Amino acid sequence: MRYCSIRDRSVKVTFREAVSRGISSDMGLFMPERIPVMEPEFFRRLPGMTLPEIAFEVGLEYVGDEIPSGVLMTICEEAFNFPVELRKISAGKQVLELFHGPTAAFKDFGARFMSRCIKYFSGINDRRTVILVATSGDTGGAIASSFLGLEGIDVIILYPSGKVSKLQENQMTTMGQNITALEVEGTFDDCQAMTKSAFKKLETHGKIKLTSANSINIARLIPQSFYYYYAIGRAGSGQKVVSVPGGNFGNLTGAIMAWKSGLHIEHFIASTNINKVVPEYLRTGVYSPHTSIQTIASAMDVGNPGNFERMLYMFGKDRDTMASKVSGFWFDDDQIRQHIREEYERSGYILDPHGAVASLGLESYLKDHPGSTGIFVATAHPAKFRETVEPVIGTTVALPNTLKGFLQGKKESIVMAPDYGCLEGFLKDKYSL
Ligand SMILES: *Cc1c(COP(=O)(O)O)cnc(C)c1O
Q1: pLDDT of residue 74
Q2: From the alpha carbon of 224, which atom of ligand 1 is closest?
Q3: Does 141 sit in the ligand 1 pocket, CB within 6 Å?
């Protein structure tokens, strides 16, 4: 399988290059040259397959012979070593829970698969792989956790001091081992500017190879299609509508890839908070990105979704084709809170704000399509957003064990001025560059 830049299809690279470069030199995102089509026989076996088994068979189509199949099987077993739950909430409505991984959010799927691909490729390298990430809070923990203990790889996370939640800070600063947290006395933008300069100046330097693990990496996208096969395989008879809560839209892009490979999905719902560029595009055909607006579904506060171009690309860059398969709905904070309360009172199910957006999107669609049934995707454990959820439902939400562990460890960080020189000094010192 070759990967091409969606800006210029003549730029073709291997999976390995697409993973290690992240983005093409023409600033285009990488996509597989073609979406592999799975055999009817694969779909017949689907209801009995585990997630790692599905991941292996689908992953093999994307990775080809660049990772030996035995290694790929181990990658899939290690990356997806936690449950995925599909639950029935009411007639015609099921929830796909993607928050049972180590950081209690769906980013674990992408991060854990990508980290193991990077580890495999770094073993072929003679340089030490250093993952350098700037985070405003959430991704740092998922990335740190996904690389924790992987040999030959260091992770260095920059986060803005005092601007992340206690739980988020603990996820980045208490793991130790190959994870180092740099606590920058500045903003997220400072952190991002510092890492960008480091990539410009030191990307391949001396004994290290700097690698970004950002959200547009193809090795984070591909695994975000695997759980859709799992869900549809177990969802029972009848075609299903799938509602996905969108921020950067990697999750929905993964779902669309699964459909293109032959998985039966009747229709997609792009559900957002008031950062509604994608629903607005589907309605009007005009794409107007903006700076992000803060909401209670904060992981979806994205004003210019990185994967929008990829989605459109899969529909031949044509809005009408896309709108015939994808509907968009958006909701404000009051609607999200009200829905969390109502669903709790109606069924006892506790939604987090992100899952609530997807659930609302599904209900809006089903109102106009009474014959359809659907699945909505819950991306975070409600305990991760307990400050929002608990007052709304009037009861406490128990922390899952995965999150409890993070509240105990001892914080270790290196405080740093918001200045590239300091970061360079740190890297030169650590790696004797
Ligand atoms: C990242 C995230 C989203 C948005 O996913 P995208 O793939 O960026 O659209 C939704 N919910 C939660 C909890 C997230 O962390």
Answers
A1: 98
A2: 7
A3: no
